[in-house]
Design brief:
Chain A: Keywords: Membrane, Transmembrane, Transmembrane helix. Chain B: This is Germination protein, Ger(X)C family. Chain B: Keywords: Signal. Chain B: It comes from Gemmiger gallinarum. The structure holds three protein chains of three kinds. Chain A has twelve helices and two strands. Chain A is mainly alpha-helical. Chain A has one domain: Up-down Bundle (Amino acid/polyamine transporter I). Chain A has a two-stranded antiparallel ribbon. In chain A, strand 1 and strand 2 form a beta hairpin. In chain A, helix 1 packs parallel to helix 8, helix 3 crosses helix 12 and helix 5 runs antiparallel to helix 11. The radius of gyration of chain A is 20 Å and the shape is globular. Chain B has two domains: 168 residues; 109 residues, Nutrient germinant receptor protein C, domain 3 (GMP Synthetase, Chain A, domain 3). In chain B, strands 1, 2, 3, 4, 5, 6, 7, 8 and 9 form a nine-stranded mixed beta sheet that branches. Chain B has a four-stranded mixed beta sheet with strand order 10-11-12-13. By secondary structure, chain C is of the alpha+beta class. Chain C folds into three domains: 110 residues, no CATH class; 115 residues, no CATH class; 168 residues, no CATH class. Helices cover 48% and strands 11% of the residues of chain C. Chain C has a five-stranded antiparallel beta sheet with strand order 5-6-8-9-7, with helices on one face. Chain C has a four-stranded antiparallel beta sheet with strand order 1-2-3-4, with helices on both faces. In chain C, helix 12 packs antiparallel against helix 15. The chains are: A mainly alpha, B alpha/beta, C alpha+beta. At the A-B interface, helix 9 and helix 11 of A face helix 1, helix 5 and helix 8 of B.
């Protein structure tokens, strides 16, 4: 009933699911995904755990701002991916400015950690319920014979492994608030497991639906949802879009909370971490960045974001290792 | 700082009010041209597109208008048809697309790409291959054709959406509409299209390829009528591939006195009819190099590798 | 300002009172002697009863000799040895004297004594305990609170017959010195919550306090949040039930509504009848109320969004009718929906504020104008009117969230009409964030609905049978999840 340090696990999990759902293209066949599932989980979980261990040792001003830049870039990418999806469905109706306002303004009401945590739990429940409804609605079009029986060669293995080893910021964020995560290191492992399993599950669903055409489908989840016809109401992509928009808002609020903590934001007694002037600046910055980046290649931006995340983690790990070693090697003072 | 906060709030409120009083970004229904079906045809070397539109002036939802266009390619024909309309095109409620009867696999891919790009918000489309008819006749009978094909879709529980056209790589299966009944077509890259118009083969092929779950036809020289629900199970063995066709709620009626009246005998006749149709189809499809029944998939899954040389047999079971 | 003490001189005290209240015609003083010692009684005749004073005090004093030689001795005798049911604490300062008189007490001033005695002789015109107006229940007690604070406390005590009920009566920092009472169960209510609440109430400074709801704004954590910080009830039975859950009840003199703190979202969908009816029926009604709330908030916005942005969600047979209706009206759909909703609210407000004698006229005019002539003239369409009316009726299924339903409805209509699907999603997130972000005294506002657990199915979304419910009653502060 009363929560002093609400867990942000739900919000982190939601963020990971959003990363999978907003992707415009699929990455591997299901067989490849299953074959590389375990190794992908191990790699990403290890990266998250190492980062969580070294971050308290290495958090300097430069690394903090690098992390902030990574989070802001991820937020911009999420907004633009959502906008691209809306443009595909309702062209000439929804503008980028409208999308930005409708996903960013609710973030103003998610200034408290407890609000983020609780809202994320509700939206996660809605997302899973919507997924069940969508899957049921296309159930008769899912055919086992659509699964591709391609042989696994080295190239396929490498491609699938590369896709499974995508390092999302949500795997690094638990390092910022150890007081919120009572499960400790299990948080990162659980996130990695559920995120990877969800990713492979979505690929399985899409392969059952699209078959050989899966790699060519643009925004495949939306294309699959359009064929959803359940009961009186046809076309379920509106349900999909509404729930995803809500999920993106929560994800942005989570990233803003992380940015505020990294920037050493004001803390008040009422657990309201992001003061309004800061939010206004954040809103303006996001609008500007979205306007600038709207014509860029999103696939390339994703790849760059992933590379930057790995580079940042490696740098932090390296610095952390050096700090640990020098701390180990330094003579003990009397 | 307080001053800047007030300024920011004022600007946001002004923007919100502007959106409010700008009349909103939505579009009234009456300004939309709601497309219910698209008929593509080829005549005299040109492509034609006939759009079946919902008549928004009428309260009856089964009243339609028709618009048509012509061009060198289907995309141009569609654009020409759209250009002749005043409102904004809305494909969100499009149920059906009919393609030319002699469409090849390559042309089918082009149609699919066009529909994916054009039809937004993406609708749930059923595809048919429509027999050759003149464009003028198509324009006159578009509404009736649409109703008939919708009725057939419901009657035979057809499920052939746009996604199923592309899901098997270099081959595709589609229902056909010829005269007033539906058939089955198999299209393959670089090959002649196989079309089954005789009801037993067409419906059996549709059931075996997963497009349908209902069989309703007359056979044995129109002397026996059959109506049944069907489901399929494939068992790949090392020596052959068994296709089990399970029939439920089977209703067999002798229409003449020359045929036996006993249920067992009628079932026997039905099973023989289906097995003959199946073996004939397997021969045709093997020659074409197509596998609409996905037998090689089951062989790969259950035996480890596909083997095109294995015979396939149909076993009919009655529930 | 240091408090001025009473004078030992009777004349000076009387002169002080005459200076303050002399102009009021209901201020009454009478000099008398008790045991040869000059005294005077003072009271307001409108709110205090001289007859009661005679019966309670003066008659007894008349018959029994008073063994006192001076004023101080007389006061000591009256307070400690006489049978008079006087207030145990004597009045020593002028502000207290004024407060006691204003509260309807009679005051006995004694010459030679710098203190006075107060006797509780309140008798003021008051409304009798009647049936609640704002909370309709079929079963359960039909009593309602009244405007008199003492009466309300007694109504609570009748239901809550344990020694653990605490009723702290305090005077609010208002110009009119209105009294309020903080009630709680000292064993069930968390002490830190009560301390915080007490401290916050004492810090509140407002010009007037006419209703318990005046406190609500000061107790709210986030001023941008539209969800109520507290719940209100007219029924002593409901207040008693909340006390049993470890919550605090605040009664204000002059207000028949008790404020319950902390308040949770699910409580707005509960009623006394839920616990009197069978579990299955009660569960069904609760689910219906949740659906009604969602319909009232999102229904009109969803309609606007579907017709203007996503007509593919509407069955084709209905779409033809909607297109026809839309073609016959001049305004964009969003403005039409806003206008009709606004008009319905105006009719509701007019019906509420209008004198009873012409109230039926308002209903007739509202129905005729909106229902008949507006549609016939083509100003509004039938589907829009139907949707708006359905939403308005659905709002009344959860009357305690009426204000929030209306505000949210307007927000959702504007967002959905301006931005379509993302606007509707944004509105949903804003409302959800408000609900999730509300923390009345640190407790989850959405308890027990979220996180979805056993509590939600025991007495949240639905209600379990009484035998199971009796095993585990949820008390604020005792269920730390």
């Amino acid at each position: 009933m009363k929560r002093d340090n609400p867990s942000l696990y739900g919000a982190l999990q939601l963020g990971l699911f959003v990363n999978v759902l907003l992707r415009a293209q699929t990455l591997f066949w299901t067989r490849e995904g299953l074959a590389t599932l375990l190794s992908g989980i191990l790699v990403t979980a290890a990266a998250g755990l190492v980062f969580a261990r070294v971050w308290p040792l290495v958090q300097c001003r430069l690394l903090r701002w690098a992390f902030i830049a990574l989070l802001l870039a991820g937020s911009v990418l999420d907004i633009l991916s959502l906008w691209q999806l809306y443009v595909a469905v309702y062209p000439d109706v929804v503008s980028l400015f409208g999308i930005c306002l409708t996903v960013l303004i609710p973030v103003a009401y998610l200034r408290r950690v407890s609000a983020i945590a609780q809202t994320a739990n509700v939206v996660l429940g809605l997302l899973l319920a919507a997924c069940v409804v969508l899957v049921l609605s296309v159930a008769e079009r899912l055919r086992v014979v659509n699964l591709q029986t391609v042989a696994l060669d080295a190239a396929a293995w490498r491609r699938a492994m590369g896709a499974q080893c995508t390092l999302y910021p949500e795997l690094l964020l638990p390092a910022l608030w150890p007081d919120h995560e009572k499960r400790g290191s299990h948080t990162v492992v659980r996130l990695a497991v559920f995120g990877a399993v969800f990713n492979v599950g979505v690929h399985l669903l899409l392969e059952l639906f699209f078959g050989a055409a899966m790699p060519d489908a643009e925004n495949p989840l939306h294309q699959a949802a359009r064929c959803g016809a359940l009961s009186v109401f046809d076309r379920l992509e509106w349900l999909q879009l509404i729930v995803w928009t809500m999920a993106v808002s929560v994800k942005l609020a989570l990233h803003l909370y992380a940015v505020t903590r990294l920037a050493g934001g004001p803390r008040t007694d009422e657990n309201s971490l992001t003061a309004m002037p800061f939010f206004a600046g954040y809103l303006a910055l996001m609008l500007l960045l979205c306007a600038v980046a709207k014509n860029w290649d999103f696939a390339m931006m994703s790849a760059v974001r992933n590379a930057a995340a790995w580079g940042f983690t490696a740098l932090a790990a390296g610095l952390g290792g050096i700090r640990w070693l020098t701390g180990f090697a330094a003579p003990k003072r009397a | 700082m307080a001053y800047w906060i007030r300024c920011a709030k004022t600007c946001l409120m002004a923007a919100a009010a502007a959106f409010l009083f700008a009349g909103c970004a939505g579009r009234p229904l009456v300004e939309r041209e709601i497309v219910r079906a698209i008929f593509f045809a080829k005549e005299g070397g040109s492509s034609h597109a006939v759009l079946l539109l919902q008549d928004q002036q009428s309260e009856d939802s089964s009243d339609y208008n028709v618009a048509s266009g012509k061009g060198d390619t289907p995309a141009q024909a569609l654009a020409d048809a759209e250009a002749g309309l005043d409102g904004v095109m809305f494909y969100g409620l499009t149920d059906l697309v009919a393609l030319p009867f002699h469409c090849s696999w390559e042309e089918l891919q082009g149609f699919a790409a066009l529909l994916y790009e054009t039809a937004q918000p993406s609708p749930e489309i059923t595809l048919f291959l429509l027999d050759d008819r003149t464009v003028s006749r198509l324009q006159e009978t578009a509404g009736q054709l649409y109703d008939e094909m919708q009725a057939a879709e419901k009657k035979y529980q057809l499920c052939c959406g746009l996604e199923s056209v592309l899901c098997q790589g270099e081959e595709a299966e589609l229902p056909c509409w010829q005269g007033d009944d539906y058939g089955f077509a198999v299209l393959c890259r670089g090959q002649q299209t196989i079309r089954y118009v005789e009801p037993v083969r067409a419906q059996l092929a549709a059931v075996l390829s997963g497009q349908s779950r209902q069989l309703e036809f007359v056979f044995a020289d129109d002397s026996i009528s059959c109506r049944t629900s069907a489901s399929v199970l494939v068992q790949a063995q090392s020596s052959q591939t068994c296709v089990f066709l399970r029939l439920e709620d089977t209703s067999l009626t002798a229409l003449t006195d020359q045929v036996p009246r006993g249920e067992e005998q009628l079932r026997q006749l039905l099973a023989e009819e289906l097995q003959n149709a199946f073996s004939q189809m397997c021969t045709d499809l093997k020659a074409m190099g197509a596998d609409p029944f996905r037998l090689s998939f089951w062989q790969t899954c259950l035996q480890g590798k596909p083997d095109d040389g294995l015979p396939a047999v149909l076993s009919v079971e009655f529930a | 300002m240091p408090k001025q003490k009473l004078s030992a001189s009777l004349g000076q005290n009387l002169a002080y009172l005459q200076q303050i209240f002399g102009a009021s015609s209901d201020f009454y003083t009478k000099k008398l002697t008790l045991g040869q010692i000059p005294c005077a009684i003072a009271l307001f005749t409108g709110i205090s009863s001289p007859e009661k004073l005679w019966v309670m005090a003066l008659d007894a004093l008349e018959r029994c000799p008073v063994p006192a030689r001076d004023g101080r001795q007389l006061l000591t005798y009256l307070l400690t040895r006489s049978v008079i049911p006087a207030e145990s604490t004597p009045i020593r300062v002028r502000t207290d004297l004024v407060e006691k008189l204003s509260a309807g007490m009679s005051v006995l001033l004694i010459d030679g004594c710098p203190a006075a005695m107060a006797v509780s002789t309140q008798e003021m015109p008051q409304r009798s305990v009647g049936q609640p107006n704002g909370e309709g229940d079929i079963r359960g007690p039909q009593e309602a609170f009244t405007e008199l604070l003492r009466n309300n406390i007694s109504l609570l005590r009748r239901q809550f017959r344990t020694d653990t009920l605490v009723a702290e009566v305090k005077t609010a920092n208002t110009h009119a010195k209105t009294e309020y009472c903080l009630c709680y169960d000292r064993e069930l209510a968390p002490p830190e919550m009560i301390d915080t609440l007490r401290r916050r109430l004492e810090q509140i400074r407002i010009p007037v306090l006419l209703d318990s709801a005046y406190f609500a704004s000061f107790l709210k954590q986030d001023k941008l949040n539209l969800f109520p910080a507290a719940a209100y009830t007219e029924r002593p039975a409901t207040a008693c039930a909340r006390l049993c859950e470890g919550k605090a009840v605040i009664l204000v003199s002059g207000s028949p509504y008790a404020m319950v703190v902390p308040s949770f979202f699910s409580e707005h969908f509960e009623s006394l009848d839920d616990y009197s009816s069978g579990a299955v029926f009660a569960g069904m009604i609760r689910v219906l109320k949740y659906i009604a709330f969602l319909l009232s908030v999102f229904g009109p916005g969803l309609y606007v969004m579907a017709v203007e942005f996503a007509p593919e969600t509407i069955p084709i047979k209905l779409l033809a009718k909607l297109a026809q209706a839309e073609a016959s009206t001049p305004l964009p759909l969003m403005l039409e929906m806003l206008g009709v909703t606004l008009l319905l609210e105006i009719v509701r407000e007019a019906g509420l504020r209008a004198p009873k004698s012409i109230g039926h006229t308002v209903s007739l005019v509202g129905a005729l104008i909106l229902g008949e002539t507006a549609v016939s003239a083509g100003i509004v369409s039938i589907p829009v009117l139907t949707m708006a009316a359905a939403a308005t009726v659905a709002t009344l299924a959860v009357p305690s969230l009426y204000e929030q339903s209306i505000l949210f409805r307007f927000i959702v209509i504007v967002l959905a009409g301006a931005f379509g699907l993302p606007g509707l999603a944004g509105g949903a997130v804003i409302i959800l964030a408000m609900a999730c972000g509300t923390e009345p005294f640190g407790y989850d506002y959405l308890f027990p609905l979220m996180p979805l657990g056993r509590a939600a199915w025991q007495d949240g979304i639905v209600r379990t049978i009484w035998s199971k419910l009796a095993e585990k009653g949820y008390v604020v502060g005792k269920d730390e999840t």
